């Protein structure tokens, strides 16, 4: 059972520990169950447990109601699709309150769906007829032109032709009055088809006709200038008008089948010019009538969809709420004899009064009591818009166990600081700050818009980027770098040239004429021959100090979870690497030339040898021997006590049912494992001992590897500085040296693109990922288990779209 201290109605946010949770049992009458769950959903502070796990979804009490809600949700999705196709956007909120009941809404949605479906079917029929008439009109126009042209050529052709070798061409009249080679008593009867065929199939269409009839057809095609709407598909298609002349019934049947296979639409056509004009007039009149009918139908359909759209969001919200309520009611246990429902769920301790108020509002017969359980509660941290992004960074590694120390409290400061150590440039920091301020000042507008994936991540982490930019400005001032250029912001340099010969950028020949530069790196180091060795030494040692400090913080936090791990681990780490950090600070203060690498290596290999010139302070040899002995003793200390302590606790622990009183606090948080129903697991001493052995070896080896891993701070900081310097010297300064305006403009463009693309995007992402790794691996593995589960209360505010219900 969690802590029950009174924390008031609105307790302050506490990120270090998750909120104290309690398992509650709610009993309310069947008649008021719907209203009770609705009030609790509005409250959003109860995570219900499923008390009907053994039942399938179809065996539960409210399966039919959920099915009805699903059907209403389907109709609403259908309405949304129809409104989207019609270009109608439902308003997000309506001022008019919708008090319609669910049963009435179900009937109304069914009626609207039937009406809309009938309208769509009629409109499709009318539109298909309209498209067919449009194609028919095009065929009448194009085919009439063809027949008129053929007739004109035939009239102009001389009636006498050569009897032996007549000249054949496409301009020869198609129908001669009499074929000289055929018996005049048996005239040739030619038939023809007219229609449209898709242009992309026209060549294949003509080729198949030729092969199928063995060349006994004449095909003429004319392209239609504009795409026409196909009656079958309703899509715009480029088509050709065709005229096919054939002879014989067999050829006719083959042509009909080929037209059907190629999707060619055939339309009747008369050779008589008078009938052609009459048919064209009739088609145009029918088209006008259909257009008027279709427009009237679309207007009526649009009015209906607009009426639906005005109330769509209210209906959608009501259906989603109803479905969520019945899903929750299906998780409750029904007591048939008492005609009431019994619910169990987790809630924060501070929310007890609010839950009871919600129950009393629903029914005076409801009652709430706290249950005692051995089951591990869910983890709940109350965050705000500033801390939520940092909490998500930690949750991505793993959800904290109940009441486990939360790394987010320290990540808020350490994460942006480690990023800034690698990204230290106050010019680049200012660019990040300005871009982040735009997101912060427009957060109300952007939060209501649908953003892209990358923009959504940037907007969600806007306060993380804000902290990163502020710390980058701070570390940039320490490094004294503004786009790699140093500035005398805090006074004059402590060094000056002894004579003009020292202007070759070397520290040799510089003399100290005043006190040390008050803040950060002296600008005289930048551009000197000693810049790289000096900054290398500074940043490398600084990385070690920062890494040891953060790992010590992680071990100190492990005290709040398991005190027997805390003491030997902090002794081991500080006996070796804490001592190294001390030597670094002493060397800085004394100006000694001692070789720290040699000193640390021979501390292990030859602990009794004299230190010689590597001695930094009196009694150093004895100190190293004592620290080495403490490091050796701390290893079995980490290994042996914990398994025996857990064994004694297991033997003394009271064994009982799933629900029983527990001590207010346990000495080792999270070490006792229970199943989801609070059942007892058999204790295996050998498994615990092997697990602790692995953990001990991992910590000892990890102390070395983790310390070395913090050297990435030095490496990335140096890489960022050198890249910035290269872009400045080899692009901007080089372009300036040509004394040409065009080259200077090109140089500025290249410099800006390189700075934004490489330093402000790629380097930012690189430094972010490395800072993330340092927190997840080097810092959090010292104390953070992260094997809990998150608190997911039943809440209408957190409900997803209706498609997810």
TrEMBL record:
Single GO MF annotation: proton-transporting ATPase activity, rotational mechanism
Pfam families reported for this sequence: V_ATPase_I
Taxonomic superkingdom: Eukaryota
UniProt entry keywords in alphabetical sequence: Coiled coil, Hydrogen ion transport, Ion transport, Membrane, Transmembrane, Transmembrane helix, Transport
Subcellular location: Membrane
Major localisation: membrane
Keyword tRNA processing attributed: no
Topology class, membrane: Multi-pass membrane protein
Record has Phosphoprotein as a keyword: no
GO aspect biological process, one term: vacuolar acidification
A GO-annotated cellular component: vacuolar proton-transporting V-type ATPase, V0 domain
Coiled coil: 95-136
Residue spans crossing the bilayer: 417-441, 462-479, 542-564, 576-602, 622-640, 741-762
Family: Belongs to the V-ATPase 116 kDa subunit family.
Function: Essential component of the vacuolar proton pump (V-ATPase), a multimeric enzyme that catalyzes the translocation of protons across the membranes. Required for assembly and activity of the V-ATPase.
Protein's name in the database: V-type proton ATPase subunit a
